Amino acid sequence: MGALIYDDSEHPIFIEDRALAHLKVVIATKLRRQESFTLSWRHPEGQPVGRTTIWLHPSIPLRFVFDEPDPPELNADWIERLMHSANTTGGIQLVDEIVEDAPEGEASAQATTS
């Protein structure tokens, strides 16, 4: 389980390493372009029901911490879906990864947050 440390907060945002690696690509791309945007996610099980949104801006400190020492192989389609949501007025919505190699050709969603 990785963590996104936002603005030197004492409360990290815990996100599964694979999802965090994909978010990192999208967030870094947007911030490198000096673009501000929001990031939203539903609260995982074990937390109060709801959702959270944070404002991301190039001047706000942000750190990505991964449990796994090696980066995962990235899914270009998932990055594209996240980037598409980043370019909307609603900002990045942390959506599940679609796994294309599901049985009988059916796509299935893989959980991304905990």
How is this structure best described in words?
This protein is α+β, with helices and mostly antiparallel strands and 114 residues long. It contains two helices and eight strands, in the order E-E-H-E-E-E-H-E-E-E. The strands form three sheets. The chain has a three-stranded antiparallel sheet with strand order 2-1-5. Strand 7 and strand 8 (108-110) form a beta hairpin. Helix 1 packs across helix 2 (76-86). The longest helix has 16 residues, at 17-32. It is globular and about 40 Å long. The termini are close together. The relative contact order is 0.25.
Identify the notable features of this structure and list them briefly.
114 residues; 24% helix; 3-stranded mixed beta sheet; disordered C terminus; 2 helices; 28% strand; alpha+beta; 8 strands
